[in-house]
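Why do we bother with holo predictions? Because pocket geometry can differ from the apo form. Keep that in mind while you read this record for guanosine-5'-diphosphate.
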Amino acid sequence: PHPTVAIVGRPNVGKSTLFNRLVGKRLALVDDRPGVTRDRREGDGKLLDLEFRVIDTAGFEDEDPASLPGRMRQQTEAAVREADVALFLIDAREGVTPLDEEIANWLRAEDAPVVIAVNKAEGRQGETGRLEAFSLGLGEPIAISAEHGEGVVDLFESLRPFI
Ligand code: GDP
Ligand code: MG
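The structure, written out:
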C-alpha cells in the first residue's frame, strides 16, 4: 500500500483542484461556489516519480463558515490520523484567516506531519501569502498554484521525505 497524503484546509482554498491535478482524473467536483464537494474522495496520486494515495477532504461548507464545523472537523481529523502526511492548504489571496489558524492549531496539537502549501500563489500575491503563512508555525510554506500547475517541484521536495 502506498503512503497516504490527506489534503486539508478550509473551504475554497483549492483542495479539490489540487486533488484532481495529483490524481489526474476528474474525480472530485470543483465549483466556484463553496459547498459543492460533498464527499471525501480518494485516488492514486502521482507527482513526478512519487506515488501515493490522496484523500480530498470535503468541506460541508454549508454548516457554519464562521468556525470549523463539526462534520468538516471530524472528516479532517479522521483523514489526518490515517494519513502519513497532511498537506495543509491556505489561499494566498485571502491570507491567513481565523479558520486557517484553528486548523493549524489542531495540526500542531496533534503533532501531525504537515506540509503547508499556499495555493493560488500565481502572480504577485504568491510570495506575500507564503511569507504570511510562516506565522502558522508549521514550517516553511511552499507556494503553489493547483490551477496553473505551479510549484510542482517544491511540492515534490516537501512531500518526498514522507513518502
Ligand atoms: P476546495 O473547496 O478547497 O476543494 O476548493 P476547490 O478546489 O473547489 O477550488 C475553489 C476555487 O478556487 C475554484 O474556483 C477553483 O477554480 C479555484 N482555485 C483552485 N486552485 C486555484 C489556483 O491555483 N489559483 C486560482 N486563482 N484559483 C484556484
Ligand atoms: Mg473540495
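The chain has a mean pLDDT of 86.
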